[in-house]
Specification:
The complex is a heterodimer. Chain A has helices at about 5-20, 25-30, 35-40, 50-75, 100-115, 130, 170-180, 220-235, 300-305, 320-325, 345; strands at about 120, 125, 165, 185-195, 205-215, 240-250, 250-260, 270, 280, 290-295, 315-320. Chain A is an alpha+beta fold. In chain A, helix 1 (about 5-20) packs parallel to helix 4. The mean pLDDT of chain A is about 90. Chain A has 2 domains: about 5-75, no CATH class; about 100-125 and about 165-345, Bira Bifunctional Protein, Domain 2 (BirA Bifunctional Protein, domain 2, 2-Layer Sandwich), CATH 3.30.930.10. Chain A has a 7-stranded mixed β-sheet, with helices on both faces. In chain A, strands 2-3 form a two-stranded antiparallel sheet. Chain A is about 35% helix and about 20% strand. Chain B folds into 5 domains: about 1-80, Phenylalanyl-tRNA Synthetase, Chain B, domain 1 (2-Layer Sandwich), CATH 3.30.56; about 100-295, Phenylalanyl-tRNA Synthetase, Chain B, domain 3 (3-Layer(bba) Sandwich), CATH 3.50.40.10; about 305-370, 2-Layer Sandwich (Phenylalanyl-tRNA Synthetase, Chain B, domain 1), CATH 3.30.56; about 395-565, BirA Bifunctional Protein, domain 2 (2-Layer Sandwich), CATH 3.30.930.10; about 580-660, Ferrodoxin-fold anticodon-binding domain (Alpha-Beta Plaits), CATH 3.30.70.380. Chain B has 19 helices and 33 strands. A 7-stranded mixed β-sheet of chain B has the order 21-24-25-29-28-27-26. In chain B, helix 5 (about 145-155) packs antiparallel against helix 9. Classes of the chains: A alpha+beta, B alpha+beta. At the A-B interface, helix 5, strand 1, strand 2, strand 4 and strand 5 of A face helix 2, helix 7, helix 10, helix 12 and helix 13 of B.
């Protein structure tokens, strides 16, 4: 007998075994003293000595297969069982949950990585220079009022100023330019904890932002719009639109506010009720949700990062992870403080 | 900063047929954001957010000006009406005129002073139309002599103040504009007293008393009261930073202060003077008691901005025709000149001090052209490949996912903790970074361990029998004259049985192909977690048994990360079958079973694994796997190894073999 013939026999027996419907008696039929296995194992002596070792391995594997398969049949089909209660409740394994912020951050990361963004991480305790001054906000500038800043009780740095908790992820802008030795192209996504001195149903002292920064030759407002539209569709689903409106930030010019269309009313601001009348959508502001700021990087910020604003242009955006995530369909979280409460009744829903 | 504008008042300045809804939509797309249109007292009222750089839009007139340009751009007919009272001439209507106070200015503190005396004021009630509008914009109604100043400020966007002329004259007839020293007292018109800190710009009389906090609030000693019949109507233009400093220092955040600190156009003073005078004449039968006083030494010259069409097109991503550029900019009140075909110079109007750079002009072009009219496309430029190598966000996420799948709940707790929680970290309170201005007592120190925060959550759920919690977050170790060292920690806290916890950590690590894990017990309830590689073992964390059967595992994630792999080191599959045998020993109390296992494994290379299969009182059954990569082993072959195990364990640990061979 040849190896090929042996393989053929094993294959036949496997097919035969697969078609068996009753588990009782299988063991003796296949593995018993006069069972199928022993019968074909006898051929070992007829095999060419040079091939005998290989045949032995094949037979060993086949025996293990038979052992496992028959053992499975015996346990899963109690003898003579003709009825199993398939309505009995399942026994669930205990599984934990990723925090909603982790889930959001992962999704955001993957969306931007698909279009060539590099995720980075920068200090959460940083110098005033990176958080404000390099972002075109000189000391005592009224624009700083908008950030309720936490200061650290530590000596000031002579060049970089006070030590603060980062009020936004924008401290990553000049840091990223420095990391790349002021050499574009830059496509950064920076997701991090941020801190502001405020606390109510829509604000927590700690929160998360994600910051995008793109710098290269010929980057225009159209690329910003393209990136926003792409994100809206990927994150909220097909058909979601983005919209930009004028705003003001010190570190972008032009500065913009970004809205995404409401999934409840489809961006119309109106919903049709059961009796056919039109009503104002209660979920949004006239069809749109404000998510955060964006703009073309201010020339002074490029200069602070050592990049020539006459050669390069860029855009940036920065939004709250919590706000962006809770605008997803069905996520009407009315008190954002729950996210950091450690309340398992909340967390175990995610 | 938000401003309320009644539609009806807007139409005093803007001629259009556009509906409030259309105005809301179009203005929001290209100009200030109209957050709401609400019906108030029979008229639609806009609630508009004006950004801090656009103080020129903080008035009815300013919004009308913006609306005109924006509506016209979208082909909605709109026209800006002439300024109210533009054509009136202000000349004394009594003979002889009253003497103006002497005004001593300090040009570094104040750019312009403009005033006029209005005499024989009738203290008439505020007319209904004006009261109605003031109520719509949530302002208090007093009487006309007072309300006219608030009305005009809202309408035209420049603060003005009505002094009691007689009070000023009684106090020496002089206004000295100067900086206050520290410790000077003043009382505002609503009766609140303050002490200066020094550096506030104030008006003083010759005796040195403060008689006004200009551009912020009037003082009681010179402001209008019930007896006032002669008014000195005065507009000044105090340095923005100085106003901001005084207003913030004393927390007097009036509309006037919020306008002036954003650099209101001093040219508006004239419009305000005319409009207010007109209203005093019409409503209070005022007579003009003096010529206009106007001290405006440095006529501010608007700087020209030079930019190229190349730059405009780079930002917009399209070629904006020259005539459209001209059209938009002149509509906005700019003067445009073209030194050559690709270069333009733009002179903004005086009220647009925010326009200073080429990009500021580009923003105007883009928003009026309409952001919504720009195409949307993704970048076609090269994708950067220079990534930070020390960060592996994907691995971080997979670690979290694996833990969650194993039954662990992920938490995000605050980076700032209370003094109590900070101390529980084991580091003294003084070795923590502290917030200089905490908001609440429970968030003051930057934490150095995640364990206390996670235990706090365990306490919240003390009813749960099996709790397994984890967090991946930074801790902050202070460093002298440097930013703190931010260390990423993976911390687990649970009330699971120890062996279950350890097994899950091992399962987690084996998912990332970490094979050498050592638990080095350093005291009764503490052990080090070490990970081995070819160059030795590294301490990556600690395990602590805590009261109430809780266990905490703290792992320094950045030290662990280099050991986490994405693929295994493949071992050829053994050609023979492994041989498994059980051995049971009775071990004395407090024998470290981990050591027993380590020693058995070390006895012979053919011993490939030792599992603790069963324990009963002090009897422990070990399942020992013998393996030879080349062939199957028989029971008789391993006899000498088996004997060596028995001899070593019985001697080393005073153990007793249970059963016989």
């Amino acid at each position: 007998m040849t190896i090929a013939e042996l393989k053929q026999q094993i294959k036949l027996l496997k097919t035969q075994l697969a078609s068996e419907t009753i588990s009782s008696g299988l063991r003796s039929k296949y593995l018993g003293k006069k069972g199928h296995f022993n019968q074909i194992a006898q051929v070992l002596t007829q095999i060419d000595p040079t091939e005998r070792k290989q045949a032995g391995i094949l037979l060993n594997q086949f025996k293990t297969f038979l052992e496992n398969h028959i053992a499975n049949q015996e346990t899963s089909q109690p003898e003579a069982a003709d009825w199993i209660d398939l309505t009995a409740p399942g026994i669930k394994p205990h599984v934990g949950h990723l925090h909603p912020i982790s889930q959001a951050m992962d999704e955001i990361t993957r969306i931007f990585e698909r279009i060539g963004f590099t995720r980075v991480r920068y200090p959460e305790v940083d110098w005033d220079w990176y958080v404000f001054e390099s972002l075109n906000m000189p000391k005592n500038h009224p624009a700083r009022d908008e950030w309720e800043t936490f200061f650290i009780d530590a000596p000031e740095d002579q060049e970089k100023g006070k030590m603060v908790l980062t009020t936004h992820t924008s401290n990553g802008q000049v840091r990223e330019m420095e990391r790349l030795d002021s050499q574009p192209p830059i496509r950064m996504i920076n997701i991090a904890r941020c801190y502001r001195r405020q606390q109510d149903a829509t604000h927590t002292q700690m929160f998360h932002q994600f910051e995008g920064l793109v710098i290269d030759k010929g980057i225009s407002l159209q690329h910003l719009k393209g990136t926003l539209d792409y994100f809206a569709q990927e994150f909220y689903g097909p058909g979601t639109k983005s919209r930009i409106r004028p705003f003001h930030f010190q570190f972008t010019e032009p500065s913009l506010e970004v809205d995404f269309s409401c999934h409840i009313c489809g961006g119309t601001g109106q919903v049709v009720t059961e009796d056919g009348t039109k009503q104002k959508c209660k979920f949004c502001k006239s069809g749109w949700h404000e998510v955060g700021g964006a703009g073309m990087v201010h020339p002074n910020v490029l200069k602070a990062g050592g990049i020539d604003p006459e050669k390069y242009t860029g855009f940036a955006f920065g939004w709250g992870v919590e706000r962006t995530y809770t605008l997803k369909e069905g996520m009407n979280i009315d008190d954002i403080r729950l996210i950091y409460s450690g309340d398992l009744r909340f967390l175990e829903q995610f | 900063m938000n401003i309320l504008i009644p539609h009806d008042w807007l139409l005093d300045h803007l001629e259009t047929e556009a509906s409030p809804d259309d105005i809301q939509r179009l203005l929001s797309l290209s100009g200030p954001s109209v957050e709401r249109v609400e019906e108030r007292a029979g008229d639609q009222v806009y609630d508009i957010e004006v950004t801090t750089n656009r103080v020129d839009s903080m008035s009815v007139r300013g919004i009308a000006r913006e609306a005109t340009v924006i509506l016209q751009q979208t082909n909605v007919p709109a026209k800006l009406k002439p300024k109210p009272a533009e054509s009136i001439e202000i000349k004394p209507s009594i003979d002889p005129p009253l003497p103006l106070p002497k005004i001593t200015n300090h040009p570094q503190l104040n750019k312009r002073t403009m005033c006029v005396i209005l005499t024989n004021i009738k203290r008439n009630p505020t007319p209904e139309w004006m009261a109605h509008r003031l109520q719509q914009i949530e302002m208090n109604v007093h009487d006309a002599a007072i309300d006219i100043t608030n009305y005009v400020t809202h309408e035209l966007g420049h603060p003005c103040h009505a002094f009691d002329y007689d009070k000023v004259m009684e106090q020496g007839g002089e206004i000295i504009i100067t900086e206050a020293a520290a410790g000077e007292k003043f009382t505002t018109l609503d009766g609140e007293s303050f002490i200066t800190v020094g550096g506030e710009v104030v008006f003083k009389n010759p005796a040195g008393d403060i008689i006004d906090l200009p551009s912020i609030k009037g003082t009681a000693n010179t402001s209008v009261n019930d007896q006032t019949t002669n008014i000195l109507l005065l507009m000044e233009s105090i340095d923005a930073q100085k106003v901001r400093f005084a207003s913030m220092t004393h927390a007097i955040r009036t509309v006037a202060a919020q306008l002036m600190e954003k650099k209101v156009d001093p040219y508006l003073a004239e419009d305000v003077l005319k409009r207010a005078t007109q209203l005093y004449q019409e409503i209070c039968a005022a007579q003009i008691g003096s010529p206009v006083y106007d001290d405006f030494p440095q006529l501010s010259q608007a700087a020209k901005i030079t930019l190229t069409t190349h730059k405009i097109n780079a930002y917009l991503g399209l070629d904006l025709p020259k005539n459209q550029i001209n059209h938009i900019l002149t509509d906005l009140g700019c003067e445009v000149a073209w030194p050559d075909d690709q270069t333009l110079t733009v002179t903004p109007p005086t009220y647009r001090a925010d326009l200073a750079l080429a990009v500021d002009v580009i923003e105007e072009l883009a928003r009026i052209y309409g952001y919504h009219n720009l195409p949307s496309k993704l970048m076609a430029t090269p994708i950067p490949t220079d990534r930070p190598t020390e960060m592996r966000f994907e691995i971080e996420h997979r670690v979290k996912e694996m833990l969650a799948d194993l039954g662990w709940q992920e938490l995000y707790t605050y980076s700032m903790v209370s003094a109590d929680l900070a101390t529980q970290s084991g580091y003294p309170l003084t070795d923590h970074l502290k917030l200089a201005n905490p908001l609440t007592d429970d968030r003051v120190y930057l934490r150095r361990s995640l364990v206390p925060s996670l235990l706090e959550v365990m306490d919240q759920h003390s009813d749960k029998k099996q709790l397994a919690l984890f967090e991946l977050a930074h801790v902050y170790h202070p460093q002298t004259s440097k930013l703190p060292k931010q260390e990423l920690h993976l911390t687990l806290v649970c009330n699971l049985p120890y062996r279950k916890l350890r097994g899950e950590i091992e399962a987690l690590l084996s998912r990332f192909f970490v094979d050498q894990i050592t638990i080095n017990q350093t005291s009764n309830l503490v052990a080090d977690l070490l990970i081995g590689n070819d160059s030795g073992t590294n301490l990556v964390g600690t395990i602590k048994i805590l009261p109430q059967s809780r266990i905490a595992v703290e792992i320094n994630f950045s030290k662990l990360l280099p050991h986490l792999k994405t693929h295994p080191h493949y071992q050829p599959i053994s050609k023979g079958e492994a041989l498994k045998e059980d051995l049971t020993f009775q071990l004395p109390p407090k024998t470290a079973v981990g050591k027993v296992i380590d020693i058995i494994i070390s006895l012979h290379p053919k011993i490939t694994s030792v599992e603790l299969k069963d324990t009963y009182q002090h009897n422990m059954t070990f399942e020992i796997t013998f393996n030879d990569p080349q062939r199957s082993l028989s029971s008789t072959e391993v006899q000498p190894i088996r004997q060596k195990i028995i001899d070593t364990i019985t001697q080393k640990f005073q153990a007793k073999l249970i059963g016989s061979l």
